[in-house]
Input
Amino acid sequence: MKDIKLIALDMDGTLLDEHHKVSRENDHAIKEAEKQGVTVVLSTGRSIRRVRDYVVSLQLSSYLVTINGSEIWGPSGELVERNPLMTPYLQWMLDLSKTHKAKYWAVSTTDNWYNEVPEDVAAHEWLKFGFDIKDDAVRDTILGELRKNNNLEISNSSLTNIEVNALGVNKAKGLRRVCELLGVSMENVMAVGDSLNDISMIKESGLGVAMGNAQPVVKEAADWITGSNTGSGVAQAIRKWVL
Output
């Protein structure tokens, strides 16, 4: 059994069910773990704006790794670290999405944008760009173009999307920073996730857990596979390895 001192949880497809809700079982398991002195950290592709309500509901008071590690937030809501995506790269991906008529979204320090961005792109600080592409051929074409650029961190949070952060920005890096601040070793972390943006933290943590609904490559990278997000797989993992 691992000595787990910190639990890192992805949100969509992991902590949250198909209705974007936290099950009662997950809620109870998280709170029991915290009562035993285990720190629970949300490590998500979401921006802080789309995380705060869950933090309040779960009564969490630790660090947050958001936007795949582009931002780290402290226990009092303070910004600890920010890793921006350079504007020229964002503009290039924006043009790429238009060329291939692909849906997209972008996250700035102040807002989330869907299929539109402000006219003066350079006036904003950007953190992540994403594509939402149902057509496999188009998605593969765009992935091929993205991989030619060596300054980007490419992942996904579902089978139909592509998420792009600045090179070297990922959930594992964010968690390492949190562990440094808390004085915890990555060996004492249990990380749980389902998609490509979770692989880095699953591989680098002492115990990497893939959801039952995880993408096959994520399951291959994990030490253990729990139940699905619709079956409170997070609670199952916490009860087996922590409680």
Observations:
- The mean pLDDT is 97.
- The chain has eight helices and 13 strands.
- The first helix runs from residue 24 to 35.
- The helical segments are 24-35, 52-58, 87-99, 136-147, 171-182, 199-204, 216-221, 233-241.
